[in-house]
Amino acid sequence: MYTLSTCPRCHKTKQFFRERNIQFVYIDVDLLDKEEQEKKRKEIYEQIGYVSFPYVKINGRIIVGYKPTEYEKSLTQ
Question: Could you tell me the pTM of the whole model?
Answer without folding.
Answer: 0.91
